[in-house]
Amino acid sequence: xxxxxxxxxxxxxxxxxxxxxxxxxxxxxxxxxxxxxxxxxxxxxxxxxxxxxxxxxxxxxxxxxxxxxxxxxxxxxxxxxxxxxxxxxxxxxxxxxxxxxxxxxxxxxxxxxxxxxxxxxxxxxxxxxxxxxxxxxxxxxxxxxxxxxxxxxxxxxxxxxxxxxxxxxxxxxxxxxxxxxxxxxxxxxxxxxxxxxxxxxxxxxxxxxxxxxxxxxxxxxxxxxxxxxxxxxxxxxxxxxxxxxxxxxxxxxxxxxxxxxxxxxxxxxxxxxxxxxxxxxxxxxxxxxxxxxxxxxxxxxxxxxxxxxxxxxxxxxxxxxxxxxxxxxxxxxxxxxxxxxxxxxxxxxxxxxxxxxxxxxxxxxxxxxxxxxxxxxxxxxxxxxxxxxxx
Amino acid sequence: xxxxxxxxxxxxxxxxxxxxxxxxxxxxxxxxxxxxxxxxxxxxxxxxxxxxxxxxxxxxxxxxxxxxxxxxxxxxxxxxxxxxxxxxxxxxxxxxxxxxxxxxxxxxxxxxxxxxxxxxxxxxxxxxxxxxxxxxxxxxxxxxxxxxxxxxxxxxxxxxxxxxxxxxxxxxxxxxxxxxxxxxxxxxxxxxxxxxxxxxxxxxxxxxxxxxxxxxxxxxxxxxxxxxxxxxxxxxxxxxxxxxxxxxxxxxxx
Lengths: 391, 254
What we know:
The complex is a heterodimer of chains A (391) and B (254). Chain A is 49% helix and 18% strand. Chain A is α+β, with helices and mostly antiparallel strands and 391 residues long. The radius of gyration of chain A is 32 Å and the shape is elongated. Chain B is globular, with a radius of gyration of 22 Å. Chains A and B meet through β3, β6 and β7 of A and loops of B.
C-alpha cells in the first residue's frame, strides 16, 4: 500500500508529463471501446433488421433456389411441400414468389425483381396489408423508399411492367404504386416491386407456387420439410457475420496502432523518469529498499497511468458512449444506395465484456512498457546511482 | 334517257371491270407461302455480314460496327470492330447457348437466364431476340388478313399466333411487301395484347438476286421517346464457305 501511495504521489508530482500520458491512454481506451461498440451495434442492428423485415425465424428454399446465383431464379418455383403448406395455413410462415422483369417508369427501362407476397401476412415487418383492398384495374404494387427515390415514383403513379411467364412468353401490364414503405433493409427495397402473391401467380401461370417461404420468429423451423431446404437464421446471416469478422480484424490493426502510440508515450516517460531520478533510486536502495521494490515502485508508477486514464476516460467517454448507445449516430449518407445494409442511425452496443477486456488489455500493455525500462534499475549500484552515474 | 343510262352502265363497268379482274387474278397467299417466300429472301446456308448498329440514346447516339458469320439459324459468330471500347468483343451463338468474350477482362461469359433479357450493347434488342432460331411456321399459326398500303407500297398483312407454349412473343403482326416479299414492318405483342416491340425496314437492297433489308429499325415500344436502334447492312455475302473452326469457343479468344 505504501508503494502504491508513493507511486501515486510521484506520478501526480510529475505534472504535465503524467497528464499528457494519461490523456493519450484515455483516448485509446475511449476509441477502442467506442469503435468496438459501434461495430457491435452495427452488427446487432443489421441482424435485427434482417430478421424483422426479411428472414424472420428462418426460411425454406425451393431446391433450385440460390439467391447468390441469378441463373437459378427461372427454375426456382414450385408447390409447397405439405409440412410447409400447413405452417402457411396457420399463418406462421409466408410464401414468396420471385421472378425477374422490367419496369418502365416514365418510359425508362429498369430491370427489377417482382416479388409476390401474401398481403395479410404478419411474418415479416413489411406493410403488405396495403396491397389488399385495391379496387383499380392495374396491378397494385408496394415499393421501398429507396426504390421510389431512384425511380422517382410516388404513390398513385402507374407504369408498365414486363415479365415472362412460366413458359417463357413475354407479358406486360400496367401497375400502380399504392404504397411506399420505409424499411432500413435495402435487400427488400432496391430493385424490386412487391405485388399480391395470388396476382403474381396468375401473371406467371404458376398457381400455388413459391420460390421460398419465410417462417415466423415464433415458430420452430421444420428440420426436414420434404424436398425443400431449411435455412436457419444463422445460416442466412452467415455471410454477413463473416463480413463483420473481416472488418473486425482490420479494426484490430487500428487498435494496435492506438495502443502502440499510448505505450510509446509511457515507455518514453519511464525511460526519462529513471534517468532523471537515478539519485533518488540510489538513495532508496542505500536506505535499504530492495531492488525488487524499487522496480515495483517504478512499474506501479507506470501502470498507474492506465488507472488514471480509465478514470479520465470514464469522465468524458462515459456520457459520450451513453449517448451513442441510446440515441445513435445519424449517418450523413444512405448506404443502401451503394448496396450496403447499414442502418441510417448507428446505435452502439457496449457489452460488459468489452469494458473488461479493453481495461485488461490496456493495463497489461501499459504495465509491460512500464516494467521494461525499470529493469535497468536492477543493474544499478547504489553508490554510483547516488552520485548520478548510470550504466 | 335509255342511251344515257346505257352509257353510265358501260362507263361504270369499264371502271369496275379491271378492278374485278385484278381482284380475281390476285390470289391471296397462305401464311406458309408467305413465310416460305420471305425465308427464300432472308435465309441462306451461310451469310457473312458487315453491319453497323446505331443506338440512339437520350442524349447521344453510338455506332457499333461488327462482322458476323452465320450458318443456318443455329450458328452465329460476331466480332465487334468499332468503336474502340467495343472492338474485340466477340459473341458466339450455338443453338440455344450464347457466349461473349470481352478483351478487357479476357474472359468468356455465358449469357443465360435473365441476362438474355438484357439489352444488347444498350440497343432496343435483347440477347433473347438474337437467339430466336425456330421456324415461324413451326411455332405459329399464321393468318393472312388481307392487304394494306404501307408507305405507299402494297403489302400483305399477316398475323401469327403462338401455337405452343414457351415462345417469347405470343402474337406477331407483319406487313410483307407484295413485290419484294420482305417483312417491311413487324409488331411483337405480349400475351395481354400489349405492343412490346416493333421493327421496320427503312431501306431495301438487291443482293445476289434477292431482296434484302438494308436499314432495319428496331424499337422497344414500352420505352417512351425511344428513337429505336438502326441496323445498317454495309456488306453481305450469301452461301460462302465458313470453316467450322469459326464456330468453336476457342475462336472467341483469337
